[in-house]
Design goal:
It is a single chain. By secondary structure, the protein is an alpha/beta fold. 43% of the residues lie in helices and 28% in strands. It is built from 5 helices and 8 strands. It has a 4-stranded mixed β-sheet with strand order 2-1-4-3. α3 (90-105) links the parallel β5 (79-84) and β6. The longest helix has 24 residues, at 165-188. The protein starts with 8 loop residues before the first strand and ends with a helix.
């Protein structure tokens, strides 16, 4: 009420969304005070400006709760990283590939880094072949989002999942529910 009033009249909307009509700003403020509500400007650019009678604190709380719920339902893409060496043992390669498969099934991106040391730096084609082999091995779960490129002593490639994070989460929950439903019948037998 301390602010200087610049417009003589406003289009007033009641607390339940009903159109009150065009009223003077003083009448609108008086109505808001009588109803123990706030007069909130909804559309400042309209002629005359549109104002609504509402409990502003409640409105702010509800909008914050809606925003919080929307953030909760969002799926955050996470980039997992796997580090390899050009001369990797076949068993170690299979273990690392298993990690990549697990990450892709969970809907996460995977950053694969080949670390070169010493004389290995003069043979970048070994790292490139290893990255290509890994990309071919996990082709059904993911695709190469960023091709192999040399970055100093490292060679980096990013593999993205075919499934979105939310789809992977839903699939995992469905599988868990299905397993949960089968377990009691196995215990009874």
């Amino acid at each position: 009420m301390n602010e200087r009033i610049r417009v003589p009249e406003v289009r007033l909307v009641g607390p339940n969304g009903e159109q009150v009509g065009i009223v003077s700003i003083h009448d609108a403020l008086k109505l808001a005070q009588e109803a123990d509500l706030d007069l909130v400007e909804v559309a400042a650019t309209a002629r005359p400006p549109v104002c609504k009678l509402m409990d502003y604190g409640k409105f702010k709380y509800e909008s914050a709760m809606k925003a919080r719920e929307a953030r909760k339902n969002q799926a955050h893409t996470i980039i997992k990283e796997i580090k390899l060496r050009p001369k990797i043992d076949p068993h170690d390669y299979e273990t690392k590939k298993g990690h990549v498969v697990r990450f892709l099934k969970a809907g996460d991106k995977v950053k694969v880094t080949i670390m070169f040391r010493g004389r290995e730096q003069s043979r970048p084609e070994l790292g490139f072949r290893l990255l290509q082999r890994l990309a071919d091995d996990v082709q059904e779960l993911g695709f190469v989002e960023s091709h192999a490129k040399q970055d100093g002593r490292n060679m980096i490639m990013v593999i993205g999942p075919h499934k979105k994070k939310a789809e992977a989460k839903a699939e995992k929950a469905a599988a868990k529910a299905q397993r949960g439903g089968e377990e009691p019948s196995e215990q009874e037998a």
